[in-house]
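Before any further analysis, backbone shapes were mapped to integers, which produced the following:

***
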Amino acid sequence: MTAHVTRTAHEVSARALAWLHAHRECGTLPADTTADLCDPDSVYKPLGESALAASLVLRESVAGSTEQRLVRELLGFCWQQLGEGDMLYERLLRYTLMTDPLETYVPFARSGVRHEPLERLLGHTSALHAVRGAELLPNRRLAVANAARVVGLDRSTPAYDWDVLTRATWLGATPEPWLIDWTTGYCVTHTVFHLTDWGSTPTGLPDDLAAYVTTWLPVWIDIWAEIEQWDLVAELMIVGCCLEEPYCDPADWERLAGVQHADGLVPRDGDPVTDDPGQRFADHQHTAVVAAIAGTLAVSRTLGGATG
């Protein structure tokens, strides 16, 4: 049964990565783009998401040689689009309270691609009371704390109180699980991602929260699979890979593999998929990212990775 999950997860991830790589030019920043970013979610954010997937594939080291080559090229493309870090530096310099320069930088830093001026600036801004006090959703505060941890800022700035940050989240209260909604579902997934640094440290999820998630995760996956919300389903499957006792159900993987297109696209939901290449990328790039991450982590965990 475990071998079946490993094989299916690898196939889903490899196809999703190939699709992201093949269509990466659809995510090119316009030539006149500046650090002001009138619409950060249009191309800038997806570049960071693709870089995240690439960095986790490189971190886990369970992909084949072809996938390793593709993700290195994908990471390089994303870095080039961001001016090799200069855009992130300029954006942080202009908009000090913005967290996205730090968070977007994380996949590159994780992969050994560094920008020293940006890191010096982050070291300064991360210690400012105005930055620490910026009002964010609780799971977003965890995102910043984990980003600082990965980049190494937590060694030079005041430490984050992980327990306080955790208990401020929806998941941290272990609430009535049947009241979860679509938006909260995403908040739950990201709370787990940041506490465990995307599965590298499963013990980062407190025991009571791990028990709560272990009990209700299969139910939540079934609910959103039934209404064909594949993007959230894939994110919840990543959560399963972040648990100390991973939850990687063969039926879930068969279901996700069943909706993946032959070219590697993973649909966001049950709506029809357009034939327009640019719109296909805009609509389904994120789902390919999370499917690639889910597959990579499932292969790693079923092979015994991430025990710390």
